[in-house]
Amino acid sequence: MAAKDIMGKVKEYFDKCFNDKPYELCDLQFVKEGSNWYLRIFADKEGGIAIDDLEAISRAIESELDKDDIIEQAYILEVSSPGLDRPLKTNADYERFAGRIVDIKLYKAINGAKEFQGKLLGLAQATVSIETEDGQTLAFELSDVAICRLAVIF
User: Up-side HSE of residue 6: CA atoms within 13 Å toward CB?
Assistant: First the structure.
């Protein structure tokens, strides 16, 4: 089964197992690193996710994977939170985290810079807008954004 199909099936398992729970599937990865395959599930919930939650997710998904045996090769299952600097992936992420400080990295430099930080104003018509510390509003086409993450500020 192709990696894309495996990830689609894992998403189905997640939705089936946790449709009545407050868990959010943030990201899925099925990748080969060196000689090992990794199935990575990133999950969160309102107020933050705990180790017990991640263990419950891991056990439920592992049970479904073992039952259906959809992954032919050996793999390592990793279930974790997306972290404090979670990447914004969906339109809902951009809406949910509006007003928070984000770090944006672009594929190509604009005026010599590829990295920007500012308060997320939102996502509209495939354009991400932020307000920089000096009050300037910047807008980036989503297709030009390599990654947009919540900023970790101490």
Answer: 20
100 falls within a domain: yes
Question: Which two structure tokens, joined as six digits, stand for 97?
Answer: 């985290």
- The CA distance from 36 to 29, in Å, is 13
Span 80-128, pLDDT tens digits: 999 889 999 888 899 999 999 999 999 999 989 999 999 999 999 999 9
Please list, in sequence order, all residues whose beta carbon lies within 8 angstroms of the beta carbon of residue 33, skipping any fewer than 6 positions away. none
Q: Print the domain residue range for 25.
A: 3-80
Domain boundary among 39, 58, 80: 80
CATH number for the domain harbouring residue 20: 3.30.300.70
Does one domain contain both 122 and 76? no
Question: Identity (one letter) of the amino acid at 147?
Answer: I
What are the tens digits of pLDDT across the range 38-48? 999 999 998 88
Query: What's the one-letter identity of residue 75?
Result: Y
Q: Cα–Cα distance between 73 and 85 in angstroms, integer?
A: 31
For residues 97 and 73, state if they share a domain: no
In eight-state DSSP terms, residue 142 is G
Q: State the virtual CA torsion across 68, 69, 71, 72 in degrees, nearest 10.
A: -150
Count of structural domains within the chain: 2
